[in-house]
């Protein structure tokens, strides 16, 4: 069922000075990734959730925005049954968690910085951040990196990717949330796109996956894969 994931290369292009970027998330039939006020929803069924964890295992790093940390308190680890591990993949490799957090709102109580967390997060922030919080997070094992901001006040994604390249990250999986999905979709920096579509409606109060689609790419090399009750769309974005 998951063979198609092994056919995708998540390696960077030859000579590239930034990692391969994969954008992946789960949405409802009406394009929502969360419920009212951002309520976390389990949209993916068991098979597409397994596909997401296989994808996590195939990337060096996994990225979410601070909105997702504050809302979901995620672990961002690989959790797979032994029979679902890709053949010949060896022991599970957990991706490096990476968080975009412009002002350092990252809570010192988050699961990602618990003593039991497998890999402590790398948190990217702007020059205008909470300096005491930086010290507190570093004391818990997190690494904090400072990036410039773009014209919209968001952390510069090209600078992020070039820093990750210097840190030997070759593949980056972007999971969300809405703000981060929108920024990456428009950025022209995504090489692989994998979208889980769950057969449910969330309703108008839910959180849209993208704020506006003006600078969104068109898609090439499209395929669709049935995973239980869900469909996963796999495609390569093309920016005109
Ligand atoms: N269904 C799914 O697959 C997923 C759903 N979610 C849902 O998404 C929601 C959270 O989404 P958001 O509130 O939009 O938070 P988000 O996780 O997208 O974080 C947005 C924040 O990241 C920071 N940021 C820094 N640089 C940025 C940049 N270049 N572009 C965008 N943001 C940047 C800003 O502080 C911004 O407020 C939650 O409800 C969560 O449950 C999150 C991940 C996956
Ligand atoms: N693939 C997928 N399907 C859903 O239905 C989801 N709600 C998500 N959410 C993402 O997974 C994170 C939770 O990860 P952990 O289980 O804590 O490792 C959540 O924060 C979203 O990024 N994904």
What features would you describe in this structure?
It is a single chain. By secondary structure, this protein is of the alpha/beta class. The protein has a single domain (21-238), classed as Dihydrofolate Reductase, subunit A (3-Layer(aba) Sandwich). The protein has helices spanning 3-6, 46-57, 66-72, 131-139, 157-166, 178-187; strands at 20-27, 32-34, 61-65, 96-100, 122-125, 143-146, 171-176, 192-197, 207-208, 218-227, 230-238. Strands 6-5-4-3-7-1-8-11-10 form a nine-stranded mixed beta sheet, with helices on both faces. It has a two-stranded antiparallel sheet with strand order 2-9. The mean pLDDT is 96. This is 2,5-diamino-6-ribosylamino-4(3H)-pyrimidinone 5'-phosphate reductase. GO terms for molecular function: 5-amino-6-(5-phosphoribosylamino)uracil reductase activity; NADP binding. Pathway: Cofactor biosynthesis; riboflavin biosynthesis. One of its GO terms (biological process) is riboflavin biosynthetic process. Residues 19-231 form the Bacterial bifunctional deaminase-reductase C-terminal domain.
